[in-house]
Specification:
The chain is an alpha/beta fold. It has one domain: 3-Layer(aba) Sandwich (Rossmann fold). Helix content is about 35%, strand content about 15%. The chain has 7 helices and 8 strands, in the order αβαβααβαβββααββ. The chain has a 6-stranded mixed beta sheet with strand order 2-5-1-6-7-8. Strands 3-4 form a two-stranded antiparallel sheet. The chain is globular and about 45 Å long. It starts with a helix and ends in a 10-residue tail after the last strand.
Length: about 210
């Protein structure tokens, strides 16, 4: 479907939000599945939206043990409609400049990253998108990132050693309102369209 149709479907799945805060949706998927790309496309299509990357919350802290920081430092203030600027403790400890500053008056916040759709974040997410990509594609993309120097091969191995059992436990795709293709799909324009499947469970869509 066209990107604008996908955005409309996602926002319908997120439903009405109580209070002054924006809709908050998770974009989850395996490493190098296309999460960041999809989140960026949705962000471009919705002028009053913002993308939060879980990698920024997790930086120098823990690959997957960051839910308390995300909820208390970012999502709870957003739920209350408050402006927020959050500086994770590891940023201070390791002298990383800046903070995570989310503007006010947003209608949509996209939380992107492996584990964004995990079960213990379901109470603060209005909808989850799972980006599905095959392991062959993921391995190819990771190898390309190693070749360009974006990541180190040892870092990829260490990450995957944690990611595989984490996702096997969580299985966030089972709670996704929408599942999209993270790879090339015949007849789908990657710049204008989004390829989706039907939800795994009808109850995963908000009424």
């Amino acid at each position: 479907m066209a990107l604008i149709e996908f955005v409309s479907l996602l926002r319908e799945a997120a439903g009405q939000v109580a209070g002054a805060g924006p809709q908050i949706v998770a974009v989850d998927g395996r490493s190098s599945s296309g999460k960041t790309t999809l989140a960026g496309r949705v962000n471009d299509a919705v002028p009053d939206s913002y993308v939060i990357h879980t990698d920024d919350i997790a930086w120098a802290h823990s690959r997957f043990g960051w839910t308390d920081l995300l909820v208390s430092g970012v999502l709870e203030p957003l739920r209350q409609g408050r402006a927020m600027a959050f500086r994770p403790p590891a940023w201070t400890a390791h002298n990383r400049a800046g903070d995570i500053e989310v503007p006010t008056d947003l209608s949509l916040v996209i939380v992107e990253g492996v584990g964004a759709g995990r079960l213990d974040l379901s109470h603060v997410m209005d909808a989850t998108v799972w980006v599905q990509a095959g392991l062959v594609d993921i391995e190819s993309r990771n190898a390309a990132r190693v070749r360009t120097g974006e990541v180190e091969e040892s870092g990829v191995r260490e990450w995957m050693a944690e990611e595989f059992p984490f996702l096997e436990r969580e299985q966030p795709w089972r709670n996704a309102a929408l599942i999209t293709a993270g790879g090339t799909v015949r007849g789908c324009d990657p710049h204008a369209d989004v390829a989706i499947s039907r939800p795994l469970r009808a109850s995963s869509m908000k009424p």
